[in-house]
């Protein structure tokens, strides 16, 4: 769900789940569906995120799913839109669309950088690079966190890749005087979405893959930014199309 209701409001995730999910007939049910996972820490800065929400209906499921997350037996994939192009793809000024596509047809890149002094590892791969009049480029990436530190993906994107997630007002570094150019996401939320969970069913052990598509705003923003680039950029600089990785 996009921007699920949070604690401190009249509605909460639990209330929303109660209204939308039927109770189970299996033994040891929970009083209400229990949310065991959300794509971001439920803080005010996460209120506009979206993605897969996993809920347990029995005490056994709560226990097993909690253990699976704690033991890192759940594979999570996130989709994000980054401002700029990571240096490994030539974002340091030598960007070439063909070379970037070749680089990212390989195994995912690995970021190993501590967050708040704790070991943190993120895998990532670019899936699309879009020309943008405002930002130069927007890079859409898939990210797989191996660890679960607070704001790990956001900080790895901004602090390690040098490409903050679009809409991340906390970690993006806006050049002085460019605030007007960068402030395009007010009211649009953070461009980070949990799009896939892979895990074993808490009772049967069967492999599960729970997946959703990226939010429509991702596609609309890429299309709008690229269209503005084609319409307004110099003719000589507007020859590059989107690059699918």
TrEMBL record:
> InterPro entries, from UniProt?
PsdUridine_synth_cat_dom_sf, PsdUridine_synth_RsuA/RluA, RluA_PseudoU_synthase
GO MF terms listed in the record are: pseudouridine synthase activity; RNA binding
Q: Where is this region: Disordered?
A: 1-49
Q: Which residues form the Pseudouridine synthase RsuA/RluA-like domain?
A: 47-158
| Gene Ontology terms describing biological process | enzyme-directed rRNA pseudouridine synthesis
Polar residues: bias regions: 37-48
Composition bias of kind Basic residues appears in 7-18
Q: Family, per the entry?
A: Belongs to the pseudouridine synthase RluA family.
| Protein's UniProt name | Pseudouridine synthase RsuA/RluA-like domain-containing protein
Q: Which organism is it from?
A: Phaeomonas parva
């Amino acid at each position: 769900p996009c921007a699920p209701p949070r604690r401190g409001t009249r509605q909460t995730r639990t209330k929303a789940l109660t209204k939308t999910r039927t109770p189970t007939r299996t033994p040891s049910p929970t009083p209400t569906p229990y949310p065991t996972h959300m794509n971001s820490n439920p803080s005010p800065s996460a209120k506009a995120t979206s993605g897969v929400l996993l809920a347990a209906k029995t005490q056994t499921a709560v226990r097993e799913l909690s253990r699976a997350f704690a033991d890192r037996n759940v594979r999570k994939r996130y989709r994000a839109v980054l401002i700029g192009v990571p240096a490994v793809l030539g974002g340091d000024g030598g960007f070439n669309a063909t070379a970037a596509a070749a680089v990212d047809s390989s195994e995912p890149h690995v970021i190993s950088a501590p967050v708040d002094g704790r070991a943190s590892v993120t895998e990532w791969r670019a899936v699309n690079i879009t020309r943008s009049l405002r930002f130069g480029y927007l890079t859409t990436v898939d990210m797989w966190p191996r660890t679960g530190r607070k704001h790990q993906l956001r900080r790895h994107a901004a602090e390690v890749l040098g490409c903050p997630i679009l809409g991340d007002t906390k970690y993006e570094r806006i050049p002085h005087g460019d605030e007007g150019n960068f402030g395009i996401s007010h009211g649009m939320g953070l461009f980070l979405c949990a799009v896939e969970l892979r895990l074993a069913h808490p009772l049967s052990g069967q492999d599960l893959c729970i997946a959703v598509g990226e939010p429509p705003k991702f596609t609309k923003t890429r299309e709008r930014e690229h269209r503005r680039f084609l319409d307004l950029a110099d003719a000589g600089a507007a020859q590059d199309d989107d690059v699918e990785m």
